[in-house]
Amino acid sequence: MTDIPRMSNAANFGTLPTPEQSLGKRLEGKKILLTGTTKGVGRVTQELLCAQGAFVCGSGRTPGVAAEVAAELKKKGYQAEGFDVDLSDYVAVKEWVKTCAELMGGIDVVINNASHPGMAPFEEMTPEIWQYGIENELDLVFNVCNCAWPYLKDADGASIIITGSTVGLQGSNSPQACHAAAKGACVALARQLAAEGGPFGIRCNSITPGLVWTEAMANIPKEMATGLIAAQTTQQAISPLDIAYAYLFLASDESRFITATNIAVDGGCAGAVTGGMQGEIVGA
């Protein structure tokens, strides 16, 4: 393969794997922090990344669950750990990051998956609900990225992934003002961290999921589900595993020259108009 020219002071963004090298071990040797591993997207993501060779340290708010999930993965021969962490608490996050870095021997990738929104119609939004949402959707991303930054600078090509939301890119007629503000800020923060991290070989990207069908979504009214699903050009909800595969790509050296970018995993709802529902919902 022809050598690709580069500036003499350009940072290293990882080694581009050959097709043979990537088979079944796309993340071999990677040391990953992943927030929110107790259920939904985070849970399936931890298993997927471990299956591709990574050591993944997870977190959760429900006591003991993140550790239980990690224990199940270790029974399969994977490298995994899980800890109870309140990600809105900077001091607690700093201790978690330090513990994980010592366990794994460093940190190569940070995936900001966890969030807990503050939701209310705007006229009913209180300062308390607003503050809760900002702390648990935006501040927690700052906490994790800021505490992990020194370790990422020491990595040989690091990657940060920040999870935004489609509602952070466009308005919605549902009561999501705080959620939209926080997630829009997350997308902007990803671009800024890409700019500041570039000289150190740190990439940063965001993904904006659409309607991901988790345990919680299965309990919403059928009429609401139908409207949300119809807004996607694919005319179907998104599996948590679809988001996990986006994380996998951005965590791997396959994406080593993708930075300051947002990847919409949203069934097309942010980029196209469906023109209305295409039949009745099935499978909900």
Structural notes for this entry:
The chain is an alpha/beta fold. 39% of the residues lie in helices and 13% in strands. The protein is built from 8 helices and 7 strands. It has a 7-stranded parallel β-sheet, with helices on both faces. The chain is globular. It starts with 18 loop residues before the first helix and ends in a 19-residue tail after the last strand. The model has no long low-confidence stretch (mean pLDDT 89).
Helices and strands in order, then pairings?
Elements: H1 19-22, E1 31-34, H2 40-51, E2 55-60, H3 65-75, E3 79-84, H4 90-104, E4 109-112, H5 127-154, E5 158-163, H6 177-197, E6 202-209, H7 222-230, H8 240-251, E7 262-265
Parallel strand pairs: 1-2, 1-4, 2-3, 4-5, 5-6, 6-7
Helix pairs in contact: 2-8, 4-5, 5-6
Major sheet attributes: 7 strands, parallel
Following the backbone from N to C, one meets helices and strands in this order, namely: HEHEHEHEHEHEHHE
- For the biggest β-sheet, the strand order reads 3-2-1-4-5-6-7
Low-confidence stretches: none
**Strand element count:** 7
Q: Helix segment count?
A: 8
**Category from helices, strands and their pairing:** alpha/beta
Helix residue percentage? 25-40%
Shape: globular
Distance between the termini: 49 Å
Radius of gyration: 19 Å
Please state roughly what percent of the residues sit in beta strands, choosing from under 5%, 5-15%, 15-25%, 25-35%, 35-45% or over 45%.
5-15%
Mean of residue pLDDT? 89
Counting copies of identical and different chains, the oligomeric state is single chain
